[in-house]
């Protein structure tokens, strides 16, 4: 049986990368100190115990880098894909070298994730594009650390316990992060003046970088409060149902679809978008008939499109746009007026249903004493465990031929 796109698509790649990253961190922390540095044999080869200690420590660091890569994959960055594909073999090797039962799941999951992410290379096609503020903040951080490291090493005679370039970098990083262990301190006035300058420069650079990092998170919270989606949320949409517009049928449609598929609603009504978002639905606040809005809603990756507003003209324009952007997608629509059914089909809809006409027909049939309409409704709504249209039609035929009962036959 073929695997669903949900299990092998972009979302699976992001989820597996997050899982491997977390497992690498947990495994590394659990294995730090295990074995006491004793030598061990791996496939007949003697491996020094210090290697196990080193891979446990570096495995933890690799896990954190993978978590960052997962964030990049969520934005569909090609650079994050390259980094992830490179890191998975490293995590697997680190798991092997840690040589413990705790590392076996890490090795197996790393191999599986490498395959899944590898086959989804086309899904991660966005080039890394940094804003001016991001570039400036990273440059400021790098320059500040370079200044602190080079200065501390050049003035090492003015400091206690600064003998190597590593000592100097340690002093600069600890000062900039405001940890301040106090193990390296200036001994002279020159050293103190330099330490003050390092404190001001490095702490400021860290603050700038944190501001750039947390600003998108704050924006995401505001977007959710206003019923808007962030670009990161839109990037991971795949194999979803795109509901274009909001009408009387939208909420019943969402209730039916939400338990069976991922759904994205596109509406230009901000109040309705906010309310739907508060109820847990995924909403994009934009014009549903606009080409750019449908692009953002990933109509090209959608499994189906639903147009069910109260305006047949708007639905027709929406259908035309969706059909142009994705010729192969299934499009269904609800016609407000029966005479517009053929028009919506000519616009590109595969299936068009007129709920008002259908409801009127059912009521008329029931008024005339025919029982098939109620039986069909019950079966389609799943009251008798059904829900299949073809099976419901067979039941209605049986009821019509019987003519004496409104209960479905076994």
Automatic annotation (TrEMBL):
Q: Which InterPro entries match?
A: 2pore_dom_K_chnl (IPR003280), K_chnl_dom (IPR013099), NAD(P)-bd_dom_sf (IPR036291), RCK_N (IPR003148), Trk_Ktr_HKT_K-transport (IPR050721)
State its location(s). Cell membrane
User: Which cellular component appears as one GO term in the record?
Assistant: plasma membrane
This protein's superkingdom?
Answer: Archaea
The annotated topology with respect to the bilayer is: Multi-pass membrane protein
Its primary localisation, in coarse terms, equals membrane
Which keywords does this chain's UniProt record carry?
Ion channel, Ion transport, Membrane, Transmembrane, Transmembrane helix, Transport
Give the PROSITE patterns listed for this entry.
RCK_N
Q: Name one GO biological process term.
A: monoatomic ion transmembrane transport
User: What residues does the RCK N-terminal domain cover?
Assistant: 238-354
Transmembrane stretches, by residue range?
Answer: 12-34, 54-73, 80-97, 103-123, 193-218
> PANTHER family in the record, alphabetically?
POTASSIUM CHANNEL PROTEIN 2-RELATED-RELATED, POTASSIUM CHANNEL PROTEIN YUGO-RELATED
Tell me what this protein is called.
Answer: NAD-binding protein
Annotated source species: Halobellus rarus
Q: What is the lineage of its organism?
A: Archaea, Methanobacteriati, Methanobacteriota, Stenosarchaea group, Halobacteria
């Amino acid at each position: 049986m073929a695997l669903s796109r949900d299990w092998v698509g972009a979302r699976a790649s992001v989820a597996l990368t997050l899982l491997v990253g977390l497992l690498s961190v947990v495994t590394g922390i659990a294995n730090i100190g295990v074995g006491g540095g004793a030598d061990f044999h791996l496939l007949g080869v003697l491996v020094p115990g210090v290697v196990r200690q080193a891979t446990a420590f570096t495995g933890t660091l690799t896990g954190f880098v993978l978590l960052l890569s997962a964030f990049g994959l969520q934005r569909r960055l090609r650079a994050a894909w390259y980094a992830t594909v490179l890191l998975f073999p490293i995590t697997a090797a680190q798991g092997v070298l840690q040589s413990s039962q705790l590392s076996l799941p890490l090795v197996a999951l790393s191999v599986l994730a490498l395959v899944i992410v590898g086959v989804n290379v086309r899904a991660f096609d966005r080039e890394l594009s940094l804003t001016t503020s991001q570039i400036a903040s990273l440059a400021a951080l790098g320059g500040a650390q370079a200044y602190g490291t080079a200065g501390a090493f050049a003035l090492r005679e003015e400091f206690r316990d600064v003998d190597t370039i590593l000592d100097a970098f340690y002093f600069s990083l600890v000062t900039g992060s405001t940890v301040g262990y106090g193990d390296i301190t200036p001994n002279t006035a020159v050293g103190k003046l330099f330490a003050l300058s390092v404190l001001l420069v490095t702490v400021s650079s860290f603050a700038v970088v944190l501001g750039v990092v947390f600003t998108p998170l704050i924006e995401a919270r505001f977007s959710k409060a206003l019923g808007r989606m962030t670009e990161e949320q839109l990037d991971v949409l795949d194999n979803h149902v795109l509901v274009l517009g909001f009408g009387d049928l939208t909420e019943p449609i969402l209730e039916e679809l939400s338990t069976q598929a991922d759904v994205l609603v596109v509406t230009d009504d901000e109040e309705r978008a906010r309310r739907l978002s508060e109820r847990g639905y995924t909403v994009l606040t934009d014009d549903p008939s606009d080409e750019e809005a449908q692009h953002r809603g990933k109509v090209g990756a959608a499994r189906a499109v639903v147009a069910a507003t109260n305006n047949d003209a708007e639905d027709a324009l929406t259908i035309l746009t969706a059909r142009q952007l994705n010729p192969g997608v299934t499009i269904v629509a609800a016609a407000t007026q029966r005479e517009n059914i053929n028009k919506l089909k000519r616009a590109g809809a595969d299936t068009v249903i007129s709920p008002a006409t259908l409801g009127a027909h059912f009521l008329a049939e029931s008024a005339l004493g025919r029982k098939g309409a109620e039986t069909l409704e019950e079966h389609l709504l799943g009251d008798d465990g059904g829900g299949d249209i073809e099976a419901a039609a067979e039941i209605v035929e049986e009821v019509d031929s019987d003519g004496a009962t409104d209960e479905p036959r076994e």
